[in-house]
Amino acid sequence: MLVRGIWQDGIDPTGFTEVLTDRRTWLVTGQTLYQAALGTVGAIILGVPGAYVLYRCSFRGQRAARALATIPFVLPTVVVGVAFRALLGRGGPLESLGMDQTVTAVILALVFFNYAVVVRTVGGLWQTLDPRAVQAARTLGASRSRAFLTVTVPQLAPAIASAGAIVFLFCSTSYGLVRTLGSPGYGTLETEIWRQSTSMLDNRTAAILSLLQIVIVILTLLVSEALSRRTAGRLQLRSRHVTPLARADAAPLVMTAATMVTLIAFPLIALVTRSFRVGDGWGTDNYRLLGTSGTGFAGGATVFEAIGNSLRIGLIATLIALAIGVPLALVLSRRVHGPLASGQSILAGAILLPLGVSAVTVGFGFSIALDSPPLDLRSSPLLVPIAQAVVALPLVVRSLTPTLASIAPGRREAAATLGASPWRVLATIDGPFLLRGLGIAIGFAYATSLGEFGATSFLARPDSQTLPVIIVRLLGRPGENNYGMAMAGAVVLALLAASIMAAAEAARKDPR
What we know:
By secondary structure, the chain is an all-alpha fold. It has 2 domains: 27-272, MetI-like fold (Orthogonal Bundle), CATH 1.10.3720; 283-512, MetI-like fold. It contains 22 helices and 4 strands. It has helices at 2-5, 13-20, 23-56, 62-74, 77-88, 103-126, 132-139, 144-172, 175-181, 189-199, 203-235, 250-275, 285-288, 303-333, 339-356, 359-369, 383-405, 409-417, 422-451, 454-459, 467-475, 480-506; strands at residues 57-58, 243-244, 277-278, 281-282. Strands 1-2 form a two-stranded parallel ribbon. Residues 29-224, 307-504 form the ABC transmembrane type-1 domain. One of its GO terms (cellular component) is plasma membrane.
């Protein structure tokens, strides 16, 4: 991307100057940072009370409540965007509010999507905090709110900051949500990269904008990693402290319940309900129409064909991600010292980049780097799976590395001392632990590939379009049938992603 997009005709400082002094560049940059900041603040404000109720307290039905809070994060971004269109758009229960295709709708969807990040990150630390510090403050006369602000908040600060950095990263790279929810005139760095490269055919401007986004992402990742290490250090070797819900917990309980119902459950219910809406009545016509390509389209894949394409491409992408990710996880899980440790850290950071760098940037880089000899893959059916594997690879490595790192080094050394070959050590020591995390790694990779939209929107050919691409295409065309089909397609995509994650979780094995 850098060579073809920026240095193809030699270094030209005027190209950078023109792009970086263009008013539109800083308009879309400001919009990107603005929506990311508001989405982060909203997720923290709603997520901290949720972390307390769902992790610090105990009550009947807690496991189901945690599962409901986690659902948004495992859904593809296209599904989240369509769900809020079903809630706020035409025919939706909140259409009268006039928030369809507004910045407010995008920010609400960002909070919905990232709520689970704050709840799980902050809740995981909160349940390890020793309650005696708060009890001592109360004994000395501090009110409940003062004890929370002066004792609990400082202890939770690393987790809140770490979650905030991750949420900011996700909010600033939310291409699918902006494409499905934003107005035609609303743009972020990602949508501008897509517009410059596909509509304006200006790869140099798109490449410079990609660099600008990568700088933002790297800075956020550095902050996130530093804060995550501090949070992990506080979580080590701590026992869990939970208490039954009490009358004094009424405020966070009501806030959490309201969030779960209005922000999480309501959009999902609206999506399913709207998918069965046909004119002034109800029926399954929208689902039957999935056997077509929609109204007003000339050729192209039907929605059912797109589902098959998504499943096939996702499977190939998952196999590629596993073939690369398993050896990397084995390398990164080893405890090394000296120069090797520095190299290991650099490798770990490099693998994390696709997790933060927008999938749009990945797709754009593939589209301009692999479209001519000697690496002409534009017509290859492997191009989209390879791009999706790049996006899924960090999740595979991050899923497997902690499990493998938990193996005591002495076990491998003892096996080697007793004459076991390296392959035997790998099979008998690492193998059971690898199987323990392999199910969830497969689930993350397959579900991510199934719902991937950013890179695929650049690379998918007309005869191999995936379900997220078809859904966005239907949503952007006029016609009640197209709109209803988009709703039905989003429900199908959500069910597929949720089923894959559930099956992967069920397949997890503990080492014997």
